[in-house]
Structure prediction request, 739 residues.
Amino acid sequence: MIEKKDSLAIGEYIKNFARKHSLFVLAYGTGCGAIEIPPTMTSRYDAERFGIRGAATPRQADVLLITGYLATKTLKRVIRVYEQMQDPKYVIGFGSCTINGGMYWDSYNTINSLDKYIPVDVFINGCMPRPEAVISGFVKLQEYIQEGKADGWRKYQNNIEEYRENQKRIIKNWRMPDYNL
Amino acid sequence: MSEQIKEKETLEALTKTFEKVNGIVQRDKRVIVETDAEIIPGVLLYAKERLKFTHFSHMSCVDWIENNQFELVYILWSPEDKIQLIIKCVINREKPIIQNIDNIWRQANTYEREIREMFGVEFEGLIGAKEFILEDWDDIPPMRKDFDTKEYSSKHFFDRPGREDAKDVRTVITERSGEEIPDFAKKYSRD
Amino acid sequence: MREKTTTLYLGPQHPGITGNMMVKLQVAGDTIAKATTEVGYLHRGFEKLMERRNWLQSFTIVCRICVPEPDPNEENFSRAVEEIEGRIIPERAKWLRVLTLELGRIASYLLWYGGQNGSAGLYTVGQWSVGDRNYILDLFEELTGGRVYHMYIWPGGVRRDMPEGFRDKVLSTMDYLEKRLDDYDKLMFDNAIFQKRAQGVGIINKEKAIEWGVVGPPLRACGIASDVRKDDPYEIYDQLDFEIGLEHGSDVWARALVRRKEIRESIKIVRQVMDKIPEGEFYNKIPNPMKWKIPAGEAYVKTESARGEFGYYVVSDGTDKPRRVHVKGPAYVHGVTLLEDMLVGANLADVSFIMNSLGTCPPEIER
Prediction:
C-alpha cells in the first residue's frame, strides 16, 4: 500500500489496480498448450472471474500468452504480434518448452529459451500446466502489475538492440515493419 | 487367421504383370512388394485402375545412408478388398530423383513436397512452392541421417544452464539408497 | 470481364481451429476465388527426435503429436512396435486400450462441438461441451495421471490397471453425458442458425472422396462406410457391437450428424468394455528398456481417431532406436489439398466453419 501521501504514487496505484483487473489475453495459440485454454475460459474454471478474457487482435490485447514451444517460423510472427501490442504489455510463458525447450530441447525447429527473444514476466511450468496453474500464473502476474514489477515491456524498449540481435540469429530473412519507431 | 486369399491374388497379379516386382504377404491385409524406381508410376497406375487400390494412404521415405540409398514407400488401400498394399523402391542417394505421381493421386503432391523438403529428393515436374514446412532453411535437409539435430539446436538456440546445485537424479537416488548406479545405465549419463 | 480480387490472410494467429495455420485467400466480394494453405507453424521435427531416442523414450513424445486426441498416437506406436517385435499383449490390456481410445474420442468430439459452434458464433455450446469434457479428463487423470497427455498405452500393454471404484465412475459419467447429449441436440441441431449455416455448405464430391484420400467422418458423411475399426479391426473391436455413423449429404450438416451418432456409439462401446473386461494381467513386461532392441522390420498400422485414419509407418533396423517413424495424420490431406479445393466458391464467413467440420488439426500436418 502507499505509505507517503504522494499524488504520483496514488495515481500509479490506481492505474495498476485498474490494469490488473482487466487483462485482455491475445488469442494466439502458439503451441499445444492452447488446448488447456478453453477449459480455463469456460464453465468449470472460468478465468473471467479474475478479469481475464480473450482479445481478437494484438492492438487490443494486454497479455501475450505463449502457449508452448515456438517453432522458428512462428517466432517471427510472435515478434510482430508482440511489437504491435500497446504498452503496457505482458508476456506469460506457458509450459516447460518456453523455459528450456522441454521435450523439444534438441529439436532443430523450436527455440529453447523464450526470454532471450521477448521479455517474459511470468513462466508457468509443466507439460502441460493444468488450468489451476494457468490461473495461478495470471494471479501472480496481477500481483506483479500491482507492485509495478511487471516491466518486461520497458526492458524490451531499453534493450532493443540485444533482443534484436538474438532474434536475427534465428530469423534469417528479416522483412518486417519496424513498430518501435 | 484367415486364408489370405485376396492378399495372395493381389501379389500374384502384380508379380505376373511386372517382371521386376517381387514381394510377400506380410500378414492379414498387408502385402509388401519391392520394385524398380523406373516403373513406379506404371505399377501404381496398374494397382489403382486394375486392382482397385483407389485410396492413397501414405507415402514415406527412409534414409539408408550406409547403402547410399533412399527408399521410397507408397502405401495404398483397397476399399473393396480391404487390403493395404505397400510398394517400395530404392533410389540413389547421391542423385535422388524419381518420377512425380501427383497426376495419379492429387494429394500425393503434399507428400512429395514434404519429402522434397525434408530429404532433398527431387520429383520430376513437381509443382508447388519449395517451402512447405520450414522457412529460410539453409542447412542440409533435416530428415537426412547425417543431419545432427542436437548440434544444430545447440549452435542456433540458447541452452539454459541448469541450476548450479542440480544433480543427476540417479546420483541423488543412489546416495539416498546407498546403491551403485548399474553398469548399463552409466553410459546414458547427462553429458 | 475479370473480377477484381483482394488477398486476405486467415491466420496464422488463431484461424478458429486447434492450432495455427495460414490460409491465403483470394476473394472476389465475399466469395473465395482461390485458397492456398501454408503450414509449418507448429513443426517440431518429431520424426527426427524419435531417431535420436530409444524405443521407450520415443513413446513418451509421440502423444504430443496431436493435442486434442493423443491416444491414437500412443496406440499406433505401441502396436507398430509390437507387430515388428512379435510381442503379445495381455487380453485385459487390449480392453483398457479400447477404453482410453473411446473416452478420448468422446472428449475430442465434445471439443469439436465447441469449436464447430464457436466458429458459427454460438458460444453457449462451447461453454457446455468444454465443461463436460472436463469430466472425461477427470477420468483420464484418475486412470493415467495426466489430464491431456496420458502416456498410458505403451509397448507391452498399458501402464496401470484401473483404480478401485473406477468402473462406477465411468458408468455414472456416461449416464450423465448421455443425458447431456439431448441438451446439445436442442441447443445445436434444432437451432435454426446452425441448420442454415451448415446445410449445403462445404460439399465434398462423393466420387472423388476416396480418390482424394478423405478419411473419417467427412468420408462417412459422403455415404461411404469406411472405418478402420470395422475394415481392419485392431485390439478387440471385432468383439464389440457398435455401428458407425453414415450420412449422404456430404456437407457440414452431414458431418455433424455423423459425429452426433458416433459419440453415442462410443458411449455404448465404453459401457460394453466395462461389462466384458476380463480380469488378469495388464502389462507384458518388456526387457531392460535401455538395451531393448527391436528386430529389423517394418509395419504400417492405423487407428481410427476422431478425425479419421491415423497411420504410422515404422521401420526398425535392429538397433535400439527407430530407423524411421512416419506419421500420417488425417488432417494431412484434409487440411491441405482438400481444403484448398473445397474453399473455392465458398463464402468468406464459412472458412473456419468448413475447416472445423473437416477436423483440420495443424499439429498433425507438420508434426
